[in-house]
Structure formats: structure tokens, C-alpha cells
Design goal:
Largest sheet: 6 strands, mixed
Shape: globular
Distance between the termini: 48 Å
Order of helices and strands: EEEHHHEHEHEHEHEHEHHEHEHHHEHHE
Bound molecules: pyridoxal-5'-phosphate, zinc ion
Number of strands: 13
Number of helices: 16
Radius of gyration: 20 Å
Strand content: 5-15%
Length: 435
């Protein structure tokens, strides 16, 4: 039983092309090109019932459900050998990050529930990612990309002859994703190029420097199309042979595999609760991989809370896409209407929650599916509510969350009047404050 893979393959959400699970370096849809990135692979799998094997490491606890596990099985590795790869890589991460991948806390927060007027039957459950590897949920996504790479190397299928000839990894980010990617790269001594905005903040740059990342500043240039210059320079690096190592599904779909562990973790806890079901989940959305994965992981369990992707008024391309998709054929499976629904936010985005200012929601198809499948919808929080949620989080909890990390709570504040006092809802404190 244990060795029957649950994930059977990939399928493009846009052009329906299938990609076999045994394919090496299957980062993108084969029809994705440098001028047309409007493709994204999604996993084809059937998980029922969702069960943790009880291990503290989520990649071991939910190993059978990982695309990476199915992939590694096709390389001839047995179950125990695959578990060992996870454990060895986790050990390497511990040496750099000080912590490894462990199930993160998830519980009703009584003070926050009281502050928001929920009664004893309802309340707010907080999933706390602030003490996880590299201080946010981002490393969860990247770990399955790294597992893929090291496994290919281990079985001798990499096109380079020795680790010294490895092509560099590459990521476009100036925040938590860059720190997570550089942490994982450092753990295996893999060179990494990090494409950051011209005015990246000093605290992040210092951390990236300490992790020996090769940081490249990316000013906006006149010849660029609308969109993020860091992403354009990143794509040029990929064309030159670098390996995509980011948290955007269209650039590397393997981030959508490990990202689900956060949803798996919450789903197994939610199933054990007595009383009513969790009715809603608020997830702050930037590039959108987070909400897509938290939802698809959670939905592998027995219940489907309404998913609310939360954006700020300063940058809300996903809310715009959901609305257009909804009235032009439906928000579910809208991938073929990409250009009609998703394009870069026109004005320069600003918010205290600066980690969710991606001017395009790259994983908008998965994010819209999550909302459409669950009867949820996007919420655009005012900047005032972003400030209030951050202040509230620090006033009533002892979690040292960042403004981005608490911004899902702004979505809850925005629609609190629509929620009954006995409803149970989730917010995810996704990142630690950095100074
Ligand atoms: C702490 C934190 N939460 C949430 C997000 C949003 O994740 P995504 O870009 O996958 O939507 C980010 C992205 O940078 C983040 O740093
Ligand atoms: Zn495609």
C-alpha cells in the first residue's frame, strides 16, 4: 500500500498539455515560452483519505501525497530511500537555518477570538509560520524544488558532471521568498542569483549577503514591458541556463507541491475538532501560490472552508481577475482566459504589507479555483485595516508577526459583520517581523 504514488502527473491549467510525473526538471508547461508565460502546470492526484503518519516533519508525515515522492519513485528509489532523502536534506537545512521543517502551531486563539466578538462555539484559529525555516511559509514551497534537484543529482541523472558544475539557482524576490531560497541554497552549497528591486530594504539585503547569495539589483528599464523588472531579469537568467528556484507556479510548478503541506497540516487538525467545522480561511495573496496551495492542501481533507484571498487596496489584480473570470464564463478553470483576466497592476503598488505587492498574481488560476470551489471570494482590504490587523495581532497575541504576515486578518476584519459569532475561521500568520 505504502508505495502506491498518489500523484499521477501534471496538466497545464491553460492548454491542457499533460506532463508525466517521471519527467526530470518539469518546471514549466512545454508550451510556455520566454514571450508567453501564460501556462501553469497543476497536479493531478487523488488523496482520500488524508492521513498524517504522525511524523513531526510534514514532508515525512505527508510523504505519500507529494509529487516529489511519486517522481522519486520513478527514479527507482524505494519508500525508505525517499524518506532518507527528506531527512538528510532537512538536517542540512537545520545547520543553516537553526530549525528544520516541523509541523507549525495551529490552534484557536482565545484572545483574538474574544477581541473580535466570537462566542465559545466559534473563533479564530491561527496557523503560525513565524518560527519556521527562514521565518515564513516560503521555504515550504521551495523545499520540493530542492528535493527534486538533489534527487536527480543523487541518482546520476543531472546533466552536469559534478556539483561544482551546477548551474546557479535563480529567484526574483526581495523578501521572504529570497531569504528562504538563499537559505535552502546555502544548505546544499548551491550558488544562487537573487534578482531584487532597485530599492530593496537594507535588512533583507543584509540577510541575503550573510547567506552568500549573489544579489542583482533590477531598476525598471524603458524597454521593459509592464510588469516586474526583477521577473524579467530572472527570466533572462533562466534562458541562460539558471534553474528557476522561486515561488511562482508558472516559473516552477514544483513550488506548488510542497506548498500544500501547510494545508495538509491544518486539515488533519480541523478533522479532529469536535463541534462545528471550520467555515472560512483567510489567506493573504501576492503571487498567489500561497493561497492556491494552502487551499488545495486543505481540500485534500474532509472539509472545504470558504477561501478568501486577501489583497490590499494598493494592489489587487487577483480580485480584478476573479471578478472578470466570474462574469465571463466562471472563476473556475479560467486559465484559457488569462490575458482577459490577469495583467500587471497599473500603478506602483504601496502598502505596509509590502510582501503581497506582486503586480501580477502569477498563480491566479489556482487561487481562483480555490475560491470558486469553496464558495469563497477575494477581499480587498483598505490600508487602514492592514494597519489595524497588524496592531491587533501584536496587542492580543504574542506572535512576532510582520505586517504582511498579519494581513490575512485584515480580510477577516473587513467582513467580520458577515460572519456569525459561532463560525470558526482561520488566519495564517505567515511571516516574522524583521528589523
Ligand atoms: C509573509 C508572507 N505571507 C504571504 C505572502 C504571499 O504569498 P504568495 O506570493 O505566494 O501569494 C508572502 C509573499 O511574499 C509573504 O512573504
Ligand atoms: Zn500549457
Amino acid at each position: 500500500m505504502q508505495d502506491i504514488p498518489v500523484v499521477t502527473g501534471w496538466r497545464c491549467s491553460v492548454c491542457n498539455t499533460k506532463v508525466s510525473i517521471d519527467e526530470i526538471f518539469s518546471w514549466r508547461c512545454p508550451n510556455s515560452t520566454s514571450s508567453d508565460r501564460h501556462h501553469v502546470l497543476e497536479l493531478e492526484n487523488s488523496i482520500a483519505p488524508l492521513r498524517s503518519n504522525g511524523d513531526a516533519n510534514p514532508y515525512v508525515a505527508f510523504q505519500r501525497y507529494l509529487a516529489w515522492d511519486a517522481f522519486a519513485a520513478t527514479l527507482g528509489l524505494d519508500f525508505a530511500a525517499r524518506t532518507k532523502i527528506i531527512r538528510d536534506l532537512d538536517q542540512a537545512v537545520v545547520k543553516v537555518a537553526g530549525v528544520g521543517f516541523r509541523t507549525t502551531p495551529f490552534a484557536r486563539n482565545d484572545a483574538l477570538s474574544d477581541a473580535l466578538g466570537f462566542n465559545n462555539l466559534g473563533g479564530v484559529w491561527i496557523k503560525d509560520e513565524t518560527n519556521s525555516v527562514a521565518g515564513s511559509q516560503k521555504a515550504r514551497h521551495l523545499f520540493t524544488e530542492l528535493l527534486h534537484l538533489v534527487t536527480v543529482e543523487l541518482v546520476g541523472r543531472a546533466p552536469w558532471k559534478s556539483p561544482t558544475q551546477r548551474p546557479a539557482l535563480a529567484i526574483a524576490s526581495c523578501g521572504n521568498a529570497a531569504i528562504a531560497a538563499s537559505t535552502l541554497a546555502r544548505a546544499v552549497n548551491w550558488p544562487i542569483r537573487v534578482f531584487v528591486p532597485e530599492h530593496a530594504d537594507a535588512a533583507t539585503l543584509k540577510i541575503l549577503d550573510s547567506l552568500q547569495a549573489n544579489v542583482i539589483r533590477c531598476p525598471r528599464v524603458a524597454t521593459d514591458q509592464p510588469g516586474d523588472p526583477c521577473v524579467f531579469r530572472f527570466r533572462e537568467a533562466i534562458e541562460q541556463g539558471c534553474i528557476p528556484f522561486g515561488v511562482q507556479g508558472p516559473e516552477n510548478a514544483w513550488c506548488l507541491d510542497g506548498g500544500r503541506t501547510i494545508g495538509f497540516e491544518m486539515a488533519v487538525v480541523a478533522e479532529e475538532l469536535s463541534g462545528s467545522l471550520i467555515s472560512r480561511m483567510f489567506v493573504q495573496a501576492g503571487g498567489g501560490a500561497f493561497v492556491a496551495c494552502a487551499a488545495s492542501g486543505f481540500f485534500a481533507g474532509a472539509t472545504k472552508p470558504r477561501v478568501h484571498a486577501v489583497q490590499t487596496q494598493g494592489c489587487a489584480p487577483l480580485a480584478r481577475a476573479f471578478e472578470i473570470a466570474d462574469r465571463t464564463g466562471g472563476a473556475r478553470n479560467a486559465g484559457s482566459r488569462w490575458s482577459q483576466c490577469m495583467w500587471p497592476w497599473e500603478t506602483t503598488p504601496v502598502s505596509l504589507a509590502d510582501g503581497i505587492l506582486d503586480d501580477e498574481t502569477y498563480d491566479w488560476v489556482g487561487a481562483c479555483n480555490a475560491m470558486a470551489d469553496s464558495g469563497g471570494y477575494p477581499i480587498v482590504a483598505s490600508e487602514q485595516l492592514i494597519h489595524e490587523s497588524y496592531a491587533l495581532a501584536h496587542r492580543v497575541t504574542n506572535i512576532d508577526v510582520s505586517p504582511t504576515g498579519s494581513s490575512g486578518l485584515a480580510g477577516l476584519l473587513a467582513i467580520r459583520h458577515e460572519i456569525a459569532d459561532d463560525e470558526r475561521v482561520i488566519v495564517i500568520f505567515s511571516g516574522v517581523r524583521r528589523q
